[in-house]
Design goal:
Distance between the termini: 33 Å
Number of helices: 12
Shape: globular
Strand content: 15-25%
Number of strands: 15
Oligomer: single chain
Helix content: 25-40%
Largest sheet: 8 strands, mixed
Length: 380
């Protein structure tokens, strides 16, 4: 087979008019994608045409790369142009999205990796949802794990003990009566244990209000401007109103997304974004904290937002509330509410600084402010 090569020796640049062919390829490998041609075109247009970060990246922003064999796409490495800030200055970030190669063409995988990690138009590249094999590839091509070991552990609070335990039993291969009985009996013991040990966030909720993604307004711009001054030596993903609305509007489940706002004295002091990430195969109803952003990292505000998230999950009859990432200060506050913890199957977050002046700062834990909002983690 002849592979179409371009200057980096890796197929060719992806284009917006590849949307349907790329989607067909990804679906053939079992990846979940929007249904229907119009929905699929809209999905890629949102990522690659309507993206606010394209203003910073310019017309030459990399959208991804494809490998073709006999005029068919057999490999794809998607790229999301994003913008972060360091010392108040914009940093061009490229985040991996939907990386896949057909099993008969896996020998071409190194070419895709070489292109992604060696791209010229970005300052930093991220892979925030890497599997174990992808993680090995990241290391092979000069990537490094995020220097925050805690990112590899999921913190969670159980909202519905019976539903949570039934999902766990199904995941282990049980069914029928065993799931039903195990859920009832186990829920009694788990509920008693959680009440005795106080495993849930508690805080006054009078300042907390949930809004939809469409209701994000210029109050978020004001909070963003204040927070940008708090972290001059950290890489901070852009959180202006337009970028937040774009990012959280990408998901097919965006109508379920809620932004919990903490307003005091007529000013937005912080927000927490909740996204649904259910696991229908095992009947798990899951709510995930996709971002947490608070002026001054004030504990009272963080506590109120976490408690609001817990109460919202109860109202929506979800089984579990999960958190990944968070800067050390916010994670310590979350830990004070005694969440359970479980390790991810593989450490998911890798990066490579392509700009020389960012290499040393990003090698340290305090060079980052990372939540599930970074990369494509909250879009899965």
């Amino acid at each position: 087979l002849r592979y179409k090569l371009y200057r980096y020796g890796c197929g060719r640049d992806a284009r917006l008019d590849d949307a349907l062919a790329i989607t067909e390829f990804l679906v053939s490998l079992g990846l979940a994608m929007p249904e229907g041609d119009e929905a699929r075109k809209k999905h890629w247009a949102a990522l690659w045409r309507d993206n606010p970060a394209l203003k910073a990246h310019g017309a030459g922003a990399a959208l991804g790369w494809v490998i073709e064999a006999e005029s068919r796409i057999v490999g794809f490495f998607g790229n999301i142009p994003q913008v972060s800030y360091f010392d108040g200055q914009p940093v061009k970030v490229s985040s991996a999205r939907a990386w896949a190669v057909h099993k008969d063409h896996r020998d071409q995988t190194p070419r895709l990796c070489e292109t992604f990690f060696g791209q010229k138009g970005a300052d930093v590249v991220l892979i925030s949802s890497a599997s174990a094999p992808a993680g090995k590839r990241c290391l092979e091509f000069g990537g490094s794990p995020l220097p925050q070991p805690g990112y590899g552990a999921i913190l969670y609070w159980v909202l519905d003990a019976g539903g949570f335990l039934r999902a766990g039993l199904r995941k282990k291969g049980h069914g029928g009566m065993a799931v039903w009985v195990g859920g009832i009996l186990g829920a009694v013991a788990l509920n008693a244990k959680m009440r005795l040990t106080g495993r849930r966030p508690f805080a006054p909720l009078q300042d907390i209000t949930p809004i939809t993604v469409e209701e994000i307004d210029n109050a978020f711009d004001d909070l963003w401007a204040r927070k940008l001054k708090e972290y001059p030596g950290r890489l901070l993903a852009a959180r202006d109103a337009d970028t937040l609305k774009w990012y959280f509007g990408l998901s097919q489940q965006s109508s379920e997304t809620r932004v919990l706002c903490c307003r005091r004295g007529g000013r937005l002091e912080g927000y927490l974004v909740l996204v649904r990430e259910d696991a229908p195969a095992i009947g798990l109803k899951r709510l995930k904290v996709a971002d947490l952003f608070v002026a001054g990292d004030e504990a009272d505000t963080v506590n109120a937002l976490l408690a609001g998230a817990y109460e919202y999950g109860l109202a929506r009859r979800c089984h579990v509330l999960e958190v990944i990432g968070l800067p050390e200060t916010l994670r310590e506050i979350a830990m004070s509410h005694k969440p359970y913890s479980r390790p991810m199957p593989a450490f998911p977050f890798f990066f490579k600084a392509l700009r020389e002046d960012l290499k040393s700062p990003l090698a340290a834990a305090d060079g980052w402010y990372v939540t599930a909002y970074d990369g494509d983690t909250a879009l899965l």
